[in-house]
Amino acid sequence: MKFNNKQVILFDLDGTLIDSAPDLALAINHMLTSLGRETFSDDLIRSWVGNGAQVIVKRGLSGKADYDDADIDVALFDKSLEIFLNFYANNLCVDTVTYPNVRSTLKILKAQGYRLVIVTNKPFDFIEPILDGLQLDGLFELCLGGDSLPVRKPDPLPLLHVCSKLGVTPEECVMVGDSKNDILAANAANMQSIGLTYGYNYGEDIGEHNPDAVFSDFADIIAPFAVTNQYDLVE
């Protein structure tokens, strides 16, 4: 598989570039403890990650991924979201790490002339502090959060917004992500995509959503973009 005539590579953040689940679990359990509620295992909370702050808070309050909005008290949700966001804002990079080969691979792609963008469902205000904390700052031309636009992935609007802002067509871009939200958004935007087998995809096979390529190592995404590569991937 080769991607020809591409200018922009769009990346999801959580589950694609970074493993943020430990700190999200920390924040959710702090929220629950503050409310006098039972906490949950990190593994269970990991399965709730990927749809933004409001969704993970609702999952925390209900104790399950497939919650019913009608069962969640609005005032309790507002209070819970505030507790979660305030705690998380101060604990963004406690145990959050980049996945293997992420930093070096991004540097290679940027050095080869590709324009790099983040499109995440995470609130926008958290993006820059995390990038700074994990030494990923200065690599991305544009970042969109889940609250940057009226809708978020899997809606194609964030991807199309990037195209408009950067003056490119969807055909000149590739979306890289670990979740069906990333692939479905790319498909709807008529944009090619790469699915990653690690991360947070609710136990589903990322290949079921028909990305153009599937990889299990972040470094493998270099090959479809580069004819030759002489860079060392040691971080």
Structural summary, described in words:
This protein has 235 residues and is an alpha/beta fold. The chain folds into 2 domains: 8-19 and 96-225, HAD superfamily/HAD-like (Rossmann fold); 21-89, DNA polymerase, domain 1. 36% of the residues lie in helices and 12% in strands. The protein is built from 9 helices and 8 strands. It has a 6-stranded parallel β-sheet, sandwiched between helices. The protein is globular, with a radius of gyration of 18 Å.
Number-wise, the strands total 8
- Radius of gyration from the alpha-carbon trace, in angstroms: 18 Å
- Mean pLDDT over the residues: 94
Binned strand content: 5-15%
The string of secondary-structure elements, in order, is EEHHHHEHEHEHEHEEH
The helicity comes to 25-40%
Short structural description:
By secondary structure, the protein is an alpha/beta fold. It has helices spanning 21-34, 42-46, 53-62, 74-89, 102-111, 127-133, 157-166, 180-188, 222-225; strands at residues 8-11, 18-19, 97-98, 115-119, 142-144, 173-177, 192-196, 213-215.
